[in-house]
Write a structure and sequence with these properties.
The protein is α+β, with helices and mostly antiparallel strands and about 100 residues long. It contains 3 helices and 5 strands; from the N terminus they run ααβββββα. The termini are far apart.
């Protein structure tokens, strides 16, 4: 049964009637892009997750990314997420939104 709960998004937070908590993340600016770390708790650890954003022609564009990397502390996950976000910006630039 737990496999089905994981598959369809159920878990302890949803069973209790609440939503899965999201950890507020750090935000930095890099080469005109805003990178926000939004790690979340997954199976007792914190999953690498973030958002790269930039305003283009008056429209705010965002690209959410998730990596398989997990960390025991939210700070470690946030630091790694920001490094990954900078790497995405350096490698892809505005193409990330295409």
């Amino acid at each position: 049964m737990s496999f089905l709960k994981k598959l369809f998004g159920g878990g302890p937070a949803q069973e209790a009637g609440g939503e899965a908590p999201e950890v507020a993340g750090q935000e930095i600016e890099h080469n005109g892009f805003k990178i926000r770390a939004t790690p979340y708790k997954a199976e007792g650890q914190f999953q690498c997750c973030g958002v790269v954003a930039r305003e283009i022609d008056g429209v705010m564009k965002e690209h959410k990314f998730i990596r398989a990397d997990r960390f025991s502390s939210v700070d470690d996950a946030a630091d790694f997420t920001l490094r990954k976000g900078r790497q995405l910006v350096d490698e892809q630039g505005e193409r990330i939104f295409g």
